[in-house]
Design brief:
By secondary structure, the protein is of the alpha/beta class. The protein has helices at 17-24, 37-50, 61-72, 86-89, 94-97, 118-121, 152-164, 176-183, 188-191, 217-229, 238-250, 255-271, 297-306, 329-342, and strands at 5-6, 54-58, 78-82, 102-106, 133-139, 168-172, 196-200, 211-215, 285-289, 309-310, 312-315, 318-322. It binds pyridoxal-5'-phosphate (PLP). Pyridoxal-5'-phosphate (PLP) binds next to helix 3.
Length: 345
């Protein structure tokens, strides 16, 4: 009997036995009083590796991004963000609903807006009708364009232009370690170019929950206050923080295996005649369309499930497969064979 293979996302990983051991023995305290040693250790480490003054633990990536928007932006200002960015498309409009920012979408089809796009989009131009632009949000790796890892050079060009224009540049680095591993650089190669970064512990790194937001001490103090206001401050959070620290120290380099498995999956699907999207600088995601002669989206998900595989249609007629530490090479080979078998109507 095969295990159920879950390709819906890299968020589905279960803590390993070693991680559960760490969780079981985590030292904890009341984090709202600042005396949870595991949370404090995680924050120090996150700040150190991103080259920032301070960090806080947020319960999710969405909250980490939102804390950046409320801490750095003000109601009625504009934020530049990619048209296909997660902060704009998939965070329930929190940047407007809660942070009060007016999003101005840019073309991020290559994973990041081109630097030349920023100045013309800047609304801080003295026009009385305009909501002044004060923030720029970047995403790396870029989820909806196929998990593109934007290189440190391309990333720096856009981020530097954003800073030159006086914006607070925030990186939604939910999967920034995938980009760093892809290019063989330290994560600080990216984070040195931005004012704040959010990264997820609960995606490819394999922790059960949580994200880190890193930036200056002042910024993090503001974010802390907002986290409390939003009800996201927690007590013995060290249970989760210890898992996060373990993940950061043990599970970064192995992301290369996920990238190799995604590459293999794309190759096998193509060999089976499936029109896999051609993603430059891909990481741990594979996207492909369901065509006219193929089954319905619901039928595709059902047939895959009947064969022991969970899959996700990220939008109508567009399937996304994500590799992670709970699927291996053999699973990928089985997955490709199942897709080839079930996709035709
Ligand atoms: C690029 C990106 N940013 C932010 C998030 C939000 O993370 P969370 O699901 O922990 O809120 C996700 C989640 O998939 C994501 O892909």
């Amino acid at each position: 009997m095969h295990k159920i293979m879950d390709f819906r996302s890299d968020t589905v990983t279960r803590p390993s036995d070693e991680m559960r051991e760490v969780i079981a023995h985590a030292e904890v305290g009341d984090d709202i009083y600042g005396d949870d040693p595991s949370s404090n250790a995680l924050c120090e480490y996150a700040a150190e590796i991103t080259g920032k003054e301070a960090a806080i633990f947020a319960c999710s990536g969405t909250m980490g991004n939102l804390l950046a928007f409320v801490a750095a932006g003000h109601h009625g200002e504009s934020i530049l963000a990619g048209k296909r960015s997660h902060v704009w498309c998939s965070e329930v409009g929190g940047l407007s609903a809660i942070a009060g920012l007016c999003p101005y979408p840019l073309d991020d089809g290559s994973g990041i807006p081109a630097p030349e796009e920023l100045a013309p989009a800047n609304r801080a131009d003295g026009d009385i009708h305009h909501a002044e632009t004060t923030m720029l949000a970047l995403e790396n790796t870029h989820n909806y364009t196929g998990g593109i890892a934007v290189s440190p050079e391309r990333f720096a060009r856009t981020a530097r232009e954003g800073r030159r224009l006086g914006f607070h540049v925030h990186l939604d680095g939910a999967r920034i370690f995938n980009a760093a591993v892809k290019y063989g650089v330290e994560v600080s190669e990216y984070t040195k170019e931005v004012d704040s970064v959010q990264f997820c512990l609960s995606k490819g790194l394999g922790a059960p929950l949580g994200s880190m937001l890193c930036g200056t001490r002042d910024f993090i103090e503001k974010a802390k206050k907002w986290r409390k206001r939003l009800g996201g401050a927690q007590r013995q959070v060290g249970i989760a923080a210890a898992a996060g620290l373990y993940a950061l120290k043990n599970n970064v380099a192995r992301l290369a295996e996920d990238h190799e498995n995604a590459r293999l999956l794309a190759e096998l699907l193509r060999k089976a005649g499936i029109a896999v999207e051609d993603t430059p600088d891909m990481t741990n995601m594979v996207f492909f369309p369901l065509g006219e002669g193929d089954v319905s989206d619901a039928e595709f998900e059902k047939r895959c499930f009947d064969k022991g595989m969970l899959v996700h249609m990220v939008s109508p007629r567009r399937a996304r497969f994500v590799t992670h530490m709970d699927v291996d090479r053999e699973d990928v080979e089985r997955a490709a064979a199942i897709v080839a078998e079930v996709i035709r109507a």
